[in-house]
């Protein structure tokens, strides 16, 4: 695993620093327009640059620990010239709001998943397809591919710099007020998922109704019976104490929650070249640290939640995969899925 992560890091570093080498003229012009936006990243009267990273996760989440590692690495390697400020629990806004600020030229960044990035590259959304990747090894294969490189180029053409995409938040489970074992057990329930056509459609293939309630409102939404549950990775379930209001956790593993760190081109291009490299390197190192911690802490989370009354249920993943698979045909994504299947089979 460490060898794969090291290889991945080198590849991601090269892609992030080289940026959008395959952009069209129109894309380059778009980036130039974004770069004209004034950024307040540079402190007045000195050479210190500040990046504010706002995330929806809490400060107890393993990904937050990865960001703290990134913060440490960036400030040490730059000898204090690159400062990272961290804002958990949606202090700077929801993920989409922080992304909009970044594209507009603010010195902000965030951890974003494929559902947020598909607005800048439509095909990126398939990363959140049901059972498209079975584990983290598959995730690393995909983001080391030429197909992923094309996606990164397309995103860069829209004014957004993807520094890394190796922050693994874990596989996602169904978290509900009643016990769920089979896909049909969700029929008639309102389940919160990501605000993207593919995960929404996959959830609705089971007979459930999808909801895109903001993550910060999920706990109260379940408590007030606005929704009947959600789907999420175990670290988020623990961090938000969701089993207090929805004690049943079906270990479906239907989505692999892979994320990355994004900043705006305006901020990135405002940095001296050596700080650009340090920022990318530190981002990748933070992702590696966070992903290792996710897997190390998964059993601890399950044990702790079980002790507090949560009920974890093993399910037949093949049954769930079969129920959700038709969404690829419904959305015209079968060809792209087949392409990814070939990459993962290599």
Overview of the molecule:
- There is one protein chain.
- With 346 residues, the chain is α/β, with parallel strands linked by helices.
- The protein has two domains: 2-170 and 258-298, D-Maltodextrin-Binding Protein, domain 2, CATH 3.40.190.170; 171-255 and 300-345, Bacterial extracellular solute-binding protein, family 7 (D-Maltodextrin-Binding Protein, domain 2), CATH 3.40.190.170.
- Helix content is 47%, strand content 17%.
- The chain has helices spanning 2-18, 25-35, 62-77, 95-103, 114-117, 136-143, 146-156, 197-204, 218-223, 234-239, 265-270, 273-307, 317-324, 327-330, 334-345, and strands at 49-54, 82-87, 108-113, 160-162, 167-176, 190-192, 209-211, 229-233, 248-251, 256-264, 311-314.
- Strands 1, 2, 3, 4, 5, 6, 7, 8, 9, 10 and 11 form an eleven-stranded mixed sheet that branches.
- Helix 8 links the parallel strand 6 (190-192) and strand 7.
- Helix 1 crosses helix 12 and helix 3 packs antiparallel against helix 12.
- The chain is globular.
- The two termini are 17 Å apart.
What's the layout of helices and strands?
Layout: H1 2-18, H2 25-35, E1 49-54, H3 62-77, E2 82-87, H4 95-103, E3 108-113, H5 114-117, H6 136-143, H7 146-156, E4 160-162, E5 167-176, E6 190-192, H8 197-204, E7 209-211, H9 218-223, E8 229-233, H10 234-239, E9 248-251, E10 256-264, H11 265-270, H12 273-307, E11 311-314, H13 317-324, H14 327-330, H15 334-345
Parallel strand pairs: 1-2, 1-3, 6-7, 6-8, 9-11
Antiparallel strand pairs: 3-10, 4-10, 5-8, 5-9, 5-10
Helix pairs in contact: 1-12, 3-12
């Amino acid at each position: 695993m460490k060898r794969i992560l090291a290889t991945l890091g080198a590849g991601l570093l090269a892609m992030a620093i080289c940026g959008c080498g395959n952009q069209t003229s129109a894309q380059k012009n778009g980036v130039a327009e974004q770069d004209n936006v004034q950024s307040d990243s540079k402190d007045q009267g000195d050479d210190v640059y500040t990046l504010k990273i706002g995330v929806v996760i809490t400060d107890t989440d393993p990904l937050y620990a990865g960001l703290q590692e990134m913060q440490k690495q960036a400030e040490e390697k730059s000898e204090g010239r690159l400062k990272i400020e961290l804002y958990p629990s949606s202090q700077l806004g929801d993920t989409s709001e922080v992304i909009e600020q970044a594209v507009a030229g603010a010195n902000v960044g965030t951890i974003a998943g494929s559902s947020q990035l598909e607005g800048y590259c439509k095909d990126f959304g398939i990363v959140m397809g049901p059972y498209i990747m079975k584990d983290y090894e598959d995730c690393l294969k995909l983001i080391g591919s030429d197909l992923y490189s094309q996606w990164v180029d397309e995103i860069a053409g829209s004014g957004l710099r993807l520094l890394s995409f190796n922050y693994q938040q874990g596989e996602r489970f169904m978290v509900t007020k009643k016990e769920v074992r089979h896909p049909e057990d969700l029929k008639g329930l309102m389940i919160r998922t990501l605000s993207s056509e593919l995960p929404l459609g996959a959830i609705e293939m089971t007979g459930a109704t999808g909801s895109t309630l903001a993550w910060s409102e999920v706990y109260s939404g379940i408590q007030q019976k606005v929704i009947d549950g959600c789907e999420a990775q175990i670290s988020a379930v623990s961090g938000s104490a969701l089993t207090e209001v929805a004690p049943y956790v079906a270990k479906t593993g239907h989505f692999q929650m892979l994320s990355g760190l994004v900043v705006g081109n305006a901020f990135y291009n405002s940095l001296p070249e050596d700080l650009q490299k340090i920022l990318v390197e530190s981002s990748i190192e933070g992702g590696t640290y966070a992903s290792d911690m996710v897997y190390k802490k998964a059993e601890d989370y399950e044990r702790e939640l079980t002790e507090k009354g949560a009920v974890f249920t093993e399910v037949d993943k093949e049954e769930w995969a079969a129920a959700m698979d038709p969404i690829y045909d419904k959305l015209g994504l079968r060809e792209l899925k087949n392409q990814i299947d070939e990459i993962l089979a290599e």
